[in-house]
């Protein structure tokens, strides 16, 4: 199959490289010329484990190439995937579909007959109808199909997720387009990943429903953690005790500082906007969005409480800034609200992150970035563990403590045990324990 991928970000680049690895002929297109220049020089524009090797292998095998020229890239393609961003629209929280519609307009006059146009971006129900309308208006006699194929990969584990998905969802009623999608994903369902065919609208909603459900699970255990703190219970035990029930499952039951990242915040918000517009409110998701928003600043206040309630002139060291480990993605990371709360209270903030400091410096210019966890701790009154990178799981606690001026350690990911932290001379607080 010959495939073009429009948008070479976290999703487009990983999907394109994996399709090439299956043996398809793939061109990844992006309008960001710098990104394409980097990719052509085998420099990855994002940090994703294993991506550099995967890209190089497939470029060397001449199955994967990069271009800024969409029109020439579309020649002879069986399918063109739209994998551009769909951020929250400023002002009202609806999904901003301007990049998707711009891509549809650009491809409309350049695709061959019987090309499948696949929306991989996360888009509200009805977007496929509009993409179809845009293409038909520009090219009224063309035979084409618009298919929804949402992506479920997680940053940090993206290649494994793409190659061994729990399911592949394909939304279309057009039989020849289903055949093309079957051929593209054949290597995966030969490996027994189920492929689920639905209507386009159901497929679009599946992605939002999945993310909203996962966000709900996280928020649920976070609220249980707060209750544990009041009642003298331990959220890790509660989480294990409920997660062992197969109907509940143990994943996404880790209490922490609230969900962030490039998907859950914007997708939960977009879902509730769609629901409100259709007079079918999703009250549970509304509560989740609100609880999660409030939680991030509450985590900043938790650190201030560990400082004795007054942060003015105090130095706080943060370990981890990205929204989760193994990515450099800072979009909607809880660290942003935590830093803001600390700065508002008059603290100075120092930080370390294994991969995220370059991105973080753009968003948080007031934070002093340091070369190691120990350098961040130098002279600090309090240290807070914000993202659970492996590099922070086995810190030399004595060295960390002796670098610090104060003795407060706030573990927002519950990665340490209180007895080992206290033995190293810290005053320790964590989440729900
Ligand atoms: P991203 O911002 O990393 O990448 C989008 C890319 O598209 C950018 O490089 C941008 O320059 C490019 N682009 C925009 N308009 C273009 C155009 N007209 N022509 C060519 N290139 C264009 O975004 P992402 O994180 O890869 O997300 C893409 C979509 O996938 C979103 O809808 C997102 O919700 C969804 N998604 C993301 C993830 C994730 O973990 N990041 C997971 C599942 C789904």
Automatic annotation (TrEMBL):
<keyword id="KW-0560">Oxidoreductase</keyword>
<dbReference type="InterPro" id="IPR001732">
    <property type="entry name" value="UDP-Glc/GDP-Man_DH_N"/>
</dbReference>
<feature type="binding site">
    <location>
        <position position="122"/>
    </location>
    <ligand>
        <name>NAD(+)</name>
    </ligand>
</feature>
<dbReference type="Pfam" id="PF00984">
    <property type="entry name" value="UDPG_MGDP_dh"/>
</dbReference>
<dbReference type="InterPro" id="IPR014026">
    <property type="entry name" value="UDP-Glc/GDP-Man_DH_dimer"/>
</dbReference>
<feature type="binding site">
    <location>
        <begin position="252"/>
        <end position="256"/>
    </location>
    <ligand>
        <name>substrate</name>
    </ligand>
</feature>
<dbReference type="GO" id="GO:0003979">
    <property type="term" value="F:UDP-glucose 6-dehydrogenase activity"/>
</dbReference>
<feature type="binding site">
    <location>
        <position position="207"/>
    </location>
    <ligand>
        <name>substrate</name>
    </ligand>
</feature>
<keyword id="KW-0520">NAD</keyword>
<dbReference type="GO" id="GO:0000271">
    <property type="term" value="P:polysaccharide biosynthetic process"/>
</dbReference>
<feature type="binding site">
    <location>
        <position position="260"/>
    </location>
    <ligand>
        <name>substrate</name>
    </ligand>
</feature>
<dbReference type="InterPro" id="IPR036291">
    <property type="entry name" value="NAD(P)-bd_dom_sf"/>
</dbReference>
<feature type="binding site">
    <location>
        <position position="266"/>
    </location>
    <ligand>
        <name>NAD(+)</name>
    </ligand>
</feature>
<dbReference type="Pfam" id="PF03721">
    <property type="entry name" value="UDPG_MGDP_dh_N"/>
</dbReference>
<feature type="active site" description="Nucleophile">
    <location>
        <position position="263"/>
    </location>
</feature>
<feature type="binding site">
    <location>
        <position position="30"/>
    </location>
    <ligand>
        <name>NAD(+)</name>
    </ligand>
</feature>
<dbReference type="InterPro" id="IPR028357">
    <property type="entry name" value="UDPglc_DH_bac"/>
</dbReference>
<feature type="binding site">
    <location>
        <position position="86"/>
    </location>
    <ligand>
        <name>NAD(+)</name>
    </ligand>
</feature>
<protein>
    <recommendedName>
        <fullName>UDP-glucose 6-dehydrogenase</fullName>
        <ecNumber>1.1.1.22</ecNumber>
    </recommendedName>
</protein>
<dbReference type="GO" id="GO:0006065">
    <property type="term" value="P:UDP-glucuronate biosynthetic process"/>
</dbReference>
<dbReference type="InterPro" id="IPR008927">
    <property type="entry name" value="6-PGluconate_DH-like_C_sf"/>
</dbReference>
<comment type="similarity">
    <text>Belongs to the UDP-glucose/GDP-mannose dehydrogenase family.</text>
</comment>
<feature type="binding site">
    <location>
        <position position="155"/>
    </location>
    <ligand>
        <name>NAD(+)</name>
    </ligand>
</feature>
<dbReference type="InterPro" id="IPR017476">
    <property type="entry name" value="UDP-Glc/GDP-Man"/>
</dbReference>
<dbReference type="InterPro" id="IPR036220">
    <property type="entry name" value="UDP-Glc/GDP-Man_DH_C_sf"/>
</dbReference>
<feature type="binding site">
    <location>
        <begin position="152"/>
        <end position="155"/>
    </location>
    <ligand>
        <name>substrate</name>
    </ligand>
</feature>
<dbReference type="InterPro" id="IPR014027">
    <property type="entry name" value="UDP-Glc/GDP-Man_DH_C"/>
</dbReference>
<feature type="binding site">
    <location>
        <position position="35"/>
    </location>
    <ligand>
        <name>NAD(+)</name>
    </ligand>
</feature>
<comment type="pathway">
    <text>Nucleotide-sugar biosynthesis; UDP-alpha-D-glucuronate biosynthesis; UDP-alpha-D-glucuronate from UDP-alpha-D-glucose: step 1/1.</text>
</comment>
<feature type="domain" description="UDP-glucose/GDP-mannose dehydrogenase C-terminal">
    <location>
        <begin position="317"/>
        <end position="418"/>
    </location>
</feature>
<feature type="binding site">
    <location>
        <position position="324"/>
    </location>
    <ligand>
        <name>substrate</name>
    </ligand>
</feature>
<dbReference type="Pfam" id="PF03720">
    <property type="entry name" value="UDPG_MGDP_dh_C"/>
</dbReference>
<dbReference type="GO" id="GO:0051287">
    <property type="term" value="F:NAD binding"/>
</dbReference>
<feature type="binding site">
    <location>
        <position position="331"/>
    </location>
    <ligand>
        <name>NAD(+)</name>
    </ligand>
</feature>
């Amino acid at each position: 199959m010959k495939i073009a991928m429009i948008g070479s970000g976290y999703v487009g680049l990983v999907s394109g490289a994996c399709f090439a690895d299956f043996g398809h002929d793939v061109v990844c297109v992006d309008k960001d010329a710098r990104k394409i220049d980097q990719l052509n020089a085998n420099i990855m524009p994002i940090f994703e484990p294993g991506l550099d090797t995967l890209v190089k292998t497939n470029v060397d095998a001449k199955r994967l190439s990069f271009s800024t020229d969409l029109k020439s890239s579309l020649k002879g393609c069986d399918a063109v995937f739209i994998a551009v961003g769909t951020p929250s629209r400023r002002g009202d929280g609806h999904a901003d579909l301007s990049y998707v519609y711009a891509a549809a307009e650009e491809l409309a006059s350049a695709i061959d007959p019987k090309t499948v146009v696949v929306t991989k971006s996360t888009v509200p129900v009805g977007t496929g109808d509009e993409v179809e309308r845009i293409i038909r208006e520009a090219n009224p006699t063309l035979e084409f199909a618009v298919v929804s194929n949402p992506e479920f990969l997680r940053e940090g584990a993206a290649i494994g997720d793409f190659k061994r998905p729990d399911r592949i969802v394909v939304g279309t009623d057009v039989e020849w387009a289903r055949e093309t999608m079957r051929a593209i994903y054949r290597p995966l369902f030969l490996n027994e990943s189920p492929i689920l065919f639905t209507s386009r609208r159901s497929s679009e909603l599946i992605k939002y429903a999945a993310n909203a459900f996962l966000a709900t699970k996280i928020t649920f255990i976070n609220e249980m953690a707060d209750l544990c703190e009041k009642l003298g219970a331990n959220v890790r035990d509660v989480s294990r005790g409920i997660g062992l029930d197969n109907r509940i499952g143990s994943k996404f039951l880790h209490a922490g500082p609230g969900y962030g990242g490039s998907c859950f915040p914007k997708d939960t918000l977009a879902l509730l906007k769609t629901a409100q517009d259709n007079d079918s409110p999703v009250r549970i998701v509304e509560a989740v969005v609100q609880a999660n928003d409030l939680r991030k600043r509450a985590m900043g206040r938790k650190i201030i409480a560990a400082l004795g309630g007054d942060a003015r002139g105090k130095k706080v060291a943060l370990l981890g800034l990205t929204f989760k480990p193994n990515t450099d993605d800072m979009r909607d990371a809880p660290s942003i609200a935590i830093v803001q709360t600390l700065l508002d209270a008059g603290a100075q903030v120092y930080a370390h992150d294994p991969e995220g400091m370059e991105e973080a410096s753009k968003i948080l210019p007031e934070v002093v970035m340091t070369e190691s966890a120990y350098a961040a701790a130098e002279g600090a009154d309090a240290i807070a563990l914000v993202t659970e990178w492996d590099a922070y799981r086995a810190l030399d606690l004595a060295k960390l403590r002796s670098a610090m001026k104060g003795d407060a350690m706030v573990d927002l990911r519950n990665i340490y045990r209180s007895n080992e932290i206290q033995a190293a001379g810290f005053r320790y607080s964590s989440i729900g324990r």
